[in-house]
């Protein structure tokens, strides 16, 4: 039984007979997309974990792409009716859109077991456990017997628009060069199944021999990594023409460790 942002008003805090609960089926998975408090945030979705596994994409409160200005959201690619509906309840309705996307992406929407979204964002819960990460949505049932604890909270990030799934990588770059410089470092991943756009690893003072780490949520699962593209740039004209290189780049895949 899959709960798509189960309702908060009139249901949160009520007995289990009244609302969705893990006792309702052999396996209950829940997607929380609008779990901010109803007052004053107008959150429509229930906040506590209530299933065998509970997914909190983007933290479970504010979904990317739902902060568009009203005109651009109402005059939507999916039509004015869909756009108007999204404007009123965009976060709440993301749950079924994630679910429908999950059907065509069996390897997507990996949920990382974590105590909080902040810890997930900072990389504390990376990579996936040895048993793997459950897939939010249609294929969550594959993890029916994997978790034995009372409640399991799972976190992940999604894209702003279709297609919504993202794949998480840890990228570590050690710089080489003769002197420090201000600027930024970008990295793009290439693999057997595609390549990503450029992602910023760090910005500010770049010091040779220093190591910089970033967690990137890529728009494509690149498969087996074949190449890493490294780019750096300084923020303003420097007449000394500084040079920087990558002494070492390590990429760790969240799913396969």
UniProtKB/TrEMBL annotation:
The keyword Protein biosynthesis does not apply. It catalyses: 1-(9Z-octadecenoyl)-glycerol + H2O = glycerol + (9Z)-octadecenoate + H(+); 1,2-dioctanoyl-3-O-[alpha-D-galactosyl-(1->6)-beta-D-galactosyl]-sn-glycerol + H2O = octanoyl-3-O-[alpha-D-galactosyl-(1->6)-beta-D-galactosyl]-sn-glycerol + octanoate + H(+); 1,2,3-trioctanoylglycerol + H2O = dioctanoylglycerol + octanoate + H(+); a 1,2-diacyl-sn-glycero-3-phosphocholine + H2O = a monoacyl-sn-glycero-3-phosphocholine + a fatty acid + H(+). PROSITE patterns: PLAT (PS50095). GO terms for molecular function: galactolipase activity; lipoprotein lipase activity. It is found in: Cell projection, Neuron projection; Secreted; Zymogen granule membrane. Residues 167-257 form the PLAT domain. It is a peripheral membrane protein. The keyword Disulfide bond applies. One of its GO terms (biological process) is lipid catabolic process. Its main location: other. InterPro entries: AB_hydrolase_fold, Lipase, PLAT/LH2_dom, PLAT/LH2_dom_sf, TAG_lipase. Pathway: Glycerolipid metabolism; triacylglycerol degradation; Glycolipid metabolism. GO terms for cellular component: extracellular space; neuron projection; zymogen granule membrane. Its EC number is 3.1.1.26. Keywords: Cell projection, Cytoplasmic vesicle, Disulfide bond, Hydrolase, Lipid degradation, Lipid metabolism, Secreted. It is an enzyme of class 3 (hydrolase). Belongs to the AB hydrolase superfamily. Lipase family. This is Pancreatic lipase-related protein 2.
